[in-house]
Amino acid sequence: MKEVSSVDVAISPIEKFQEYLATRGKRLTRERMIFVEEVFADHEHFDADTVIERVSRRKDGRSVSRSTVYRVLSLLEEAGMIRKVARQNDRDVYEHDYGYAQHDHFICEKCGDLIEFSNDSVREVVEQIAAEHGFRLSHHRLEAHGVCAKCSAPPQRRHRKLDMI
Ligand SMILES: [Zn+2]
Ligand SMILES: [Zn+2]
User: Fold this and answer.
1) Which ligand number lies closest to the CA of residue 112?
2) What is the pLDDT along the chain (165 residues), one digit of tens a residue?
3) Cα-to-centroid distance, 108 and ligand 1 (Å)
4) Which residue in 15, 17, 121, 134 has the most C-beta neighbors within 10 A?
5) How many angstroms separate the CA atoms of 157 and 142, rounded?
6) Cβ neighbour number for residue 118 with a 10 Å cutoff
7) Closest Cα to residue 53, out of 41, 111, 16?
8) Residue 156 C-alpha to ligand 2 middle, in angstroms?
9) Helix, strand, coil: what percent of the chain each, to 5?
10) Which ligand is nearest to the CA of 6?
11) CB atoms within 10 A of CB 37
12) Domains, the chain
């Protein structure tokens, strides 16, 4: 399995988002900017609460309202910068779709873990099938469900008193 890595992008997430907002006649407010900075601060999967928490820990961060957070998340999604990858404990889990290499996911049905992988053969097969259909591919998204190694390992046998006699 290859490590999924970040890719060089021509413009920063903030600039990219600013461009998108401009096409919609919207401005990048300071509140939105702080929020976008925190969303792109690291490449981990995240949900709305993760970002609210990070913003509130910043010196210049005020408490952002929940409705603002959901609004910005859906704007970022429309801009093609983030995408929903799963739903865990009734929360949408997002990841970056901008500045991140194409990759696919295994999703554990027991613990909800997301395992990322990137595989050239998968990409080639999808490209080949697309070509057969005369389909112009922009990107693909593969999601495989099952049980992760941790969850399928047999439970550790507890030491019984009997063993120690
Ligand atoms: Zn699991
Ligand atoms: Zn991912």
Assistant:
1) 1
2) 445 666 666 788 899 999 999 999 999 888 888 889 889 888 788 999 988 888 888 877 666 778 888 999 999 999 989 999 888 778 899 988 877 777 899 999 998 888 889 899 999 999 999 999 999 988 888 889 999 999 998 877 655 555 555
3) 5
4) 17
5) 36
6) 15
7) 41
8) 30
9) 40, 20, 45
10) 2
11) 17
12) 8-100 (1.10.10.10), 102-154 (3.30.1490.190)
| 146 within 8 A of 108, measured Cβ to Cβ | yes
pTM of the predicted model as reported, rounded to 2 decimal places: 0.69
- State how far the Cα of 7 lies from the Cα of 99, in Å rounded to an integer: 5
CB within 5 A of ion ligand 1: which residues?
108, 110-111, 113, 148, 151
Q: Which two tokens stand for residue 31?
A: 């509140």
